[in-house]
């Protein structure tokens, strides 16, 4: 009996070890798998050529990713510019100012927002943001715009990353010792001065981590952006130009990728690019965040 | 002195404004979907599969997509749970005394959590090509399982960490093996497991990019794992791309259905975790 129990424990240990290693090594497996499929493309053209060329003519075998990378950067940039100041203010309000009653209403709301699926954001973008830009925003700046633009993509993305940024920054603010705030207040600083000179300064690395994480989330967002961005394979020059981000490229063309030579390889290369950038960004921000957390634990 | 007071007031107003915008965006989104979708909502939408001329505006519903989504999300959640529970137990209960490895593993799952669903979709597609599978329910379940594993592991890891160490020590000191201790812990975190299930089911049912390559699309309710399956988000996407008003309208109604399903799941998991956290030590 005793032996059986120990044996069971040992077998389960091995089994769980296998499960854990297998699922954690997914990171490697995904990277290698995508890389292997991109080899045919990488053999015919170099990395720099792929990343800087702006001709996208799959039928002629020309794959330049520059327009798509620019599309992704524009959309993500707009999203962060909109979302970061708003979310900073919200997080400050939630941690430093709001009474518990309001906090108890707001936190579930943010949670609900984070639960809404991407496609619903896309539908909302088409129904609400596109007409809004077309009728009210664009006429002030350009002659004509359909509304399908990197601006629309940026706004939709900004709303999608609200919950992520708010929750991370709120966590970061909570790790700041109350003593520091008390010290500042007792020296006669106003609440805002305390926030500005103590809380924000102390939370700076955490805010950077939140931004990096939000950027990587925005990079990979597919369907909502695809629905509102216009999907034109030319690098955008203004916020009212349509753009064509990398994930949208993959999602839009999977149907025909098997019929054109090296097309599938090009799409897998796009996925690899996304994967590598996001991997890097995620590791950076997670390392910063876990440092902050361990400082709190001491 | 006046300037300082003014600054204080100014930023306070700004904060409240920002909060109204962020919280308001939720109501604007749900409101837009509700107003647009409600007009096209009827019983046929949720009880019928697409009829002959569904895509030019004739009768039918999206039952195929609702059931397909439920199959994909349900299957993936179940598979994900079977993998995530051992992983979470392993990290927390079997690696006692070590400091570095649990944290490295946690970092791995955090990173996996951040990888976008389109990459999981592309990778799932590679797996299917490798094994010679066609776009099917099975393919969709595999891709979505990969997507939900990190979500579940993180959620379970968090609840297991809240179990008091004394409980584990007590079990061990009575001569229990690590697995027997794990069983005690598992009983303690049952509500947390339920929350993790709801969380990943909600995420799985709403995701498009992972099923786009892998699950395919079909007008029929799938009867085997090897048949292609429609999913609700994909049905919304396709219907919205149509030029026929009636079909677009049904897309809005489908969006409303998905929104309601997801909201119910989110609210349910919120209530559950609140209810059970009351009884925690």
Give an account of the 3D structure.
- The complex is a heterodimer of chains A (298) and B (281).
- Chain A has 298 residues and is mainly alpha-helical.
- Chain A has two domains: 2-46; 48-297, MetI-like (MetI-like fold), CATH 1.10.3720.10.
- Chain A is 77% helix and 1% strand.
- Chain A has helices at 2-24, 26-44, 47-52, 66-97, 100-115, 118-137, 150-174, 178-186, 191-220, 223-228, 246-253, 263-297; strands at 56-57, 62-63.
- In chain A, α11 (246-253) crosses α12 (263-297).
- Chain A is globular and about 70 Å long.
- Chain A starts with a helix and ends with a helix.
- The model of chain A has no long low-confidence stretch (mean pLDDT 87).
- Chain B has 281 residues and is mostly helical.
- Chain B folds into two domains: 2-38; 54-277, Orthogonal Bundle (MetI-like fold), CATH 1.10.3720.
- The longest helix of chain B has 37 residues, at 2-38.
- The chains are: A mainly alpha (298), B mainly alpha (281).
- The interface between A and B is large, with 83 and 81 residues.
